[in-house]
Protein 1
Amino acid sequence: MAPYEPEQDTSEAGQLRLGRRKAARYVVPVAVAGVAAATIGLVPALATSGDPDLPKVTAQELIEKIAASDTQQLSGTVKISTDLGLPSMGGMAGGFAGGGDAGGGEGGGGSAADPKNKLMELASGTHTLRVAADGPDKQKVSLLEDAAEYSLIHNGDEVWAYDSASNEAYHAKGFQVSGDKGDKGDKGDKGQAESPAGMPATPEEFAEQALKAVDDTTSVKVDGTAQVAGRDAYRLVIEPKQSGSTVGRITVAVDAKTGTPLKFTLTPSSGGAAVIDAGFTKVDFGKPSASTFDFAPPKGAKVTEADEHAALSRDFKGRDFKGRDFKDHDFADKAKGGKEFKEEDLNDLKVIGEGWTSIAELRLPGGQGLPTAGSGDVPPDAQKLLDSLGDQVSGKFGSGTVFSTRLINALVTDDGKVYAGAVTKDALVKAANAAH
């Protein structure tokens, strides 16, 4: 079906932002930066069929419809996959994330059910999630695997996570919804809690981030209709107007009745399969059963309390490591040639450019380039991964290495500067040259 309207001019960007009260600009567009830890690739024709005949709407009206949506209850199945163009990391991902010891023994990576480790699996491959929500205090996400299931349940002030493969559970009390302690959110926030895992898992969460990137550097339009999970939807298209961005376009399928995003797709400017696609294959806006959010650890399950895990991590930092006294300052000294990590190094952040071509510039702690396997600071397997991802470049800034994905690229110079963003390699080199 043909688009309902021509591409909107930048003069309307201000109105679009008013229609989306939470559309605050990020230094690097959140539609990209928020997806750096967990990006999702294309699953063709996710339960879509036909182009329903719906009343015409403008982009501003559709954004306002999303903002006004107050969907508190739903359940369904979401299919997501990832295509960042990274080589397979095999079992290294768990080790880097701190989950090398699935059993959570001494010196290990804590509980195998810890959400911070487990849900990083969404950063690659294709996955199916079952989701359910009943207001701001009850949510559940289950990651379905071949012969196992991982569930994350938020009920009131408690969060439970259970990994059936290892028969381990993770428990946290005192969980709060977004905002200050005790704040249940206002209607503008739809009263929803932040994900306990700190990462988006549904089309709505991805769309929330994408809409924050709408500004004068962005084109927004309604591009026809679609049917997703058996429901009629409008297609909202968000595109950078600037050249040099790795983002080609973002498409959000918006439920025509409720205003709830049903599908989110991010296509890179380089073409090919999408980097991000998260869509419902089934969805029901009825109230889920109260028992959906009940959980008790199965008999024999190992339960790790969040405060116990934190204590274990603190204790591990002072443990003897390969015959050496392993302390924070000691590690800093050895990893950076005797120079300690300083907080001001991490806070010295600058932003070059604006909008979709924003580039973050910062200094590595110690003012030096990347450590190498030759210096003994990097394990050989990690060095192989870095070498497979990096391209050597040079310019007025000197020399360095560009680490590339299909979405986020980063230039690390030999003198300890980092330039990163959802931009091309050429844009990074140009920014580094201009900064010297």
Protein 2
Amino acid sequence: MSTPAAVILGHLQTVEHERRVRAASPALHARVQAIKSYQQRRFAHTYSDLLATPRYGAAARFFLDELYGPSDFSQRDAQFARVVPALVRLFPRDVVETVGTLAALHALSEQLDSAMAGQLAGEKVDAGTYVDAWRGTGRAAERARQVALTLEVGEDLDRLTRKPLLRHSLRMMRGPARAAGLSALQGFLESGFDTFLAMRGAQEFLGTVSAREHALLNALFDAQDADGTQALVQLP
């Protein structure tokens, strides 16, 4: 049976493999970056109403900055991979499980980004080429899992906010985390915890994300929606 550390390391190795493949092909790398940039614009467009609300704006921004977009996390991931055993040893089990879900999402997202980039004829990504790229991959089940993992990260963070002692524990972890090279992860966890705590319940937020992402998923891969649905029409 795989240990939590081995599972997390496996996901990080998948991410590193995707990066090596892209490094060997500048054209593929450029197309992946174009996909990532469009996906960040798509999320900002789809959730512009949530981003503008006092209650949900910070959580939507957290998803936008941490789970979408073209940010380069290679240095963070390399540091992370070196200290996974320390992570498992130092952090509470609930936190380790959340990190495991995040790592699984990270790995799957990188694989899907590469697959989509392989469907592009060039570096231009708009609503039409984005839809064609998704449909060209034929990976509806994996897109559904990507949505499920995204929601699971949010649900985990929301659940952790209901454990009053955990926030204190996270504060106490700052020194050991810094010494172990886990400052970036520590910052992510504290930011996520505080953001979801401030919402005073994430059920409506996560329900909205689930409804919109599943509507887009169905529009992308359901043959009956080939001529376009409201979810596709609203793509930026």
